[in-house]
Amino acid sequence: MTTTADNLAAGPPPAVEDQGHPNRWRILAVLAAVAFMAQLDLFIVNIAVPAIGRSFGGSLNGLSWVLNAYAIVFAALLVPAGRLADHFGRRRFLLIGVAVFTLASAACAAAPSLGVLVAARALQAVGAAMIVPTSLGLLYPSFPKRQHATVVGIWAGVAAVAGSSGPPVGGLLVEVSWRWIFVINVPIGVATLIAGWRLLPEVRAAKGTRLPDGISAVLLLAAVSLLVLATVEGPDWGWSSTRTLGLLAVAAAAVALTVLRTVRHPYALIEKGLFRSQPFTFATIALFLFFVGFAIFLLNGTLFLQDEWHYSAVRAGLAILPGPATAAVFAVNAGRLAQRFGRVWPAVVGTACMAIAALIWLSLTTVHPSYLTEILPGMVVGGVSAGLTQAPLFAAAGTLPPDRATTGSAVLNMARQVGSAVGVAVVVVAVGTGARPTLAGYHHAWAAEAVAGALAAVAAAGSGLRGRGTRSGRPGVSS
Predict the structure, then answer these.
(1) What percent of the chain stands above pLDDT 70?
(2) Which fold has domain 22-201+269-462?
(3) What sign for the dihedral angle of Cα 94, 95, 97, 98?
(4) C or N: which end of the chain has fewer Cβ atoms within 10 Å?
(5) How far is CA 52 from CA 47, 173, 288, in A?
(6) Could you give the angle at the alpha carbon of 230 between the alpha carbons of 224 and 231, nearest 5°?
(7) In 3-state terms, what secondary structure has residue 448?
(8) Given this model, what pLDDT does residue 386 score?
């Protein structure tokens, strides 16, 4: 059977390029829905951590792996999944990813122990890694080039709302049972599988295109996993212990070997040519730093409300709701803001707002609950940050040649997820792993968020620099 686009490298006919796929807006709806589902699960579990702890026991350190298993595997597999999807078919990979994600969600909901839950979360992340870069890879060829900025803005806006909506949605579901935060994925997954099977075109690389280097993927997974493991376990093991220093040394070696492989191997997983684009390079750094802060913003705020102020899960979720509501307002207007102010300024203001939100909470919060004066101002400013930042930074993939945009999108998403994992680790380190957390611990985490936001603003400003674009030097796919 002839597919819509068996060979994207050859390019669509001029009429299709000018008009896009006839079902392009329905395709956008399906791709946004699956991306929302995958991104939501990165943060929806935050608010369920205390409830999961009551079911299974364990320290905050151990429970954090319910979050970290997803974040680490997701981050490490994004780029290889994107490259393999280009080779074997993006539609095929996305549908398999949705199926894996849906089945893993059911396994999470039925998990009898913490270990099984962590394993199922890791499997969930495998499905999510197949979904997210592939959804962007299918989005580009479905729309004419003149609409790419708009649809990427919508896609990134959906991601922003998904991340911010995790705690309030999770809070409502946790009131019934924490298992419902996973059960709800099952009908959504089944519905998107059916719609995707009917609507999505197939897109793949030209025949004869080489598979990406497998050693690069293994090194990347080792580097990310070992670095976060050392960060999370460091407080228990001791920062000067043999285990911690050994893990950090091996992680540093894996990072160095990954970079070396990228520079020297002609088919490296992450191609060195991507980073000839200065806007793309700085946007990658900015996304990493921003999501270090964003993960702290959500997790530290959730733990503070429940553990320090003794809010219920529902009340904590409702308390966080102004954040995603504000993010949604700014996200849906991201395209208009970019047209008026350019791509860079919204990103700079958005990342700076992350630092401002942290400073508000750092200076105002006490052990005596006063939501309107202590939490709400920072929540609104944080929502502005989430809504403004993501679309212009993800749009940096558009500075790459068409046959590198999908890989570039995967790298940007990897930076996002690694940053999120590091942010969770920072909270674990700052808040503590043993006795009841102290106010000082939460303040230390917010101080780290402020630093991450400020550095992200500097990097976002750098994404406006003009540099050499990459050139397509070998056959591939265009996006």
Answers:
(1) 83
(2) Growth Hormone; Chain: A; (1.20.1250)
(3) positive
(4) N
(5) 10, 13, 28
(6) 90
(7) helix
(8) 86
What's the rounded Cα separation, in Å, for the pair 435 and 422? Answer: 22
In sequence order, what are the residues at sequence separation of 6 or more whose Cβ sits closer than 8 angstroms to the Cβ of residue 120? 104, 107, 108, 111
Rounded CA separation 465/365 (Å): 38
Q: How far apart are CA 304 and CA 298, in angstroms?
A: 10
Give the lowest-confidence range in 84-98, 298-312, 398-412. 398-412
Q: Phi and psi of 365, rounded to 5°?
A: -75, 140
HEC assignment per residue over 83-124 = HHHHHHCHHHHHHHHHHHHHHHHHHHHCCCCHHHHHHHHHHH
Q: Of 228-242, 261-275, 295-309, 404-418, which gets the smallest average pLDDT?
A: 228-242
Distance CA 247, CA 228 (A): 9
DSSP 208: T
How many other C-beta atoms can be found within 10 angstroms of the C-beta atom of residue 440?
A: 11
- What is the residue extent of each domain of the chain? 22-201+269-462, 213-268
Q: How far apart are CA 239 and CA 7, in angstroms?
A: 52
pLDDT digits (tens, 9 = 90+) for 326-370: 887 887 777 677 777 877 888 999 999 999 999 999 999 998 989
CA distance 108 to 182: 6
Label residue 368 exposed, middle or buried (CB < 10 Å: 0-12, 13-18, 19+): exposed
Do 88 and 202 touch, CB atoms closer than 8 A? no
Tokens representing 186?
A: 């099952």
167, 313 in Cβ contact below 8 A? no
Residue 9: partners with Cβ closer than 8 Å, 6 or more residues away? 205, 206, 209, 403, 475, 476, 477, 478
pTM assigned to the model? 0.77
Interaxial angle between packed helices 60-88 and 214-237, expressed in degrees from 0 to 180 and rounded to the nearest 10: 170
The long-range contacts involving 250-259, CB below 8 angstroms and separated by at least 24 positions, are 250/222, 250/226, 251/222, 251/223, 251/226, 251/227, 254/219, 254/220, 254/222, 254/223, 254/226, 255/223, 255/227, 257/219, 258/216, 258/219, 258/220, 258/223
Would you say 268 and 220 are in contact if contact means Cβ atoms under 8 Å apart?
Answer: no
